[in-house]
Amino acid sequence: MLGICPKCGDYKWDKNVSEDKQYIICQQCGHRWKFKSMPLFILTGCSGVGKTTTAQELLQRDTRFLVMDADFLFNIMPHDTNEDYRNWVEQILSLSKNIMQGGKPLLWTQAGALEYYEAAYNRRFFTEIYYLAV
Ligand SMILES: [Zn+2]
After folding, report:
1. pLDDT of residue 99
2. Could you tell me the distance, in angstroms and rounded to a whole number, from the CA of residue 90 to the centre of ligand 1?
3. Tell me: the pLDDT tens digits for 27-83?
4. Which ranges constitute the DSSP H helices of the chain?
5. What φ, ψ does residue 48 adopt, rounded to 5°?
6. Would you say residue 23 has pLDDT above 90?
7. How far apart are the CA of 124 and the centre of ligand 1, in A?
8. Banded pLDDT at 25 (limits 50, 70, 90)
9. What spacing in Å lies between the alpha carbon of 102 and ligand 1's midpoint?
10. Which among 28, 31, 35, 118 could disulfide-bond with 10, CB atoms 3.0 to 4.6 Å apart, if both were Cys?
11. Helices (H), 47-124
12. What is the mean pLDDT of the chain?
């Protein structure tokens, strides 16, 4: 929804983001619309290291960010090929950019596939991505 141009209705995945990360720019008509760009946080580590325990503890506190587990998408998406992992990361980022329009950044727990973040199309919608390995 955030990526659909409100002026011409273009819904293709080819939007640009202004250098100051304040506006999305339609490549078809040039229209610009404001969005909230925020940092994204990834809590990572091997299976069993304590990501979920840490996330559960964070859920009990008042935080300025939302806490989500990337496994819920992993479990409903194919994950056999590199392309599958790339798509998984794109979906995490797409979901995050839409949710953060509510005013809070997200922290995801995720065990792998971090190498796909920086090259992802949806990376452009975030000011920074911080990775914390436990
Ligand atoms: Zn447009």
Report:
1. 96
2. 22
3. 999 999 999 999 999 999 998 999 999 999 999 998 899 999 998 888 888 889 999
4. 51-59, 71-74, 82-99
5. 90, 0
6. yes
7. 18
8. very high
9. 23
10. 28
11. 51-59, 71-74, 82-99
12. 94
Contact yes or no for 134/41 (Cβ under 8 A): no
List domains and CATH numbers for the chain.
Answer: 1-35 (no CATH), 37-133 (3.40.50.300)
**132 C-alpha to center of ligand 1: Å?**
37
Which residues partner with 131 through β-bridges? Answer: 42
Q: How far is the CA of 2 from the centre of ligand 1 (A)?
A: 12
Determine the distance separating the centroid of ligand 1 and the alpha carbon of 5, expressed in angstroms: 5
Q: How close is the Cα of 97 to the center of ligand 1, in Å?
A: 19
Share of the chain above pLDDT 90, in %: 87
User: Do the Cβ atoms of 66 and 133 come closer than 8 Å?
Assistant: no
- How far is ligand 1, taken at its centre, from the CA of residue 42, in Å? 32
Expressed in angstroms and rounded, the spacing between residue 33 Cα and the centre of ligand 1 is 10
Q: What percentage of the chain has pLDDT greater than the value 70? A: 100
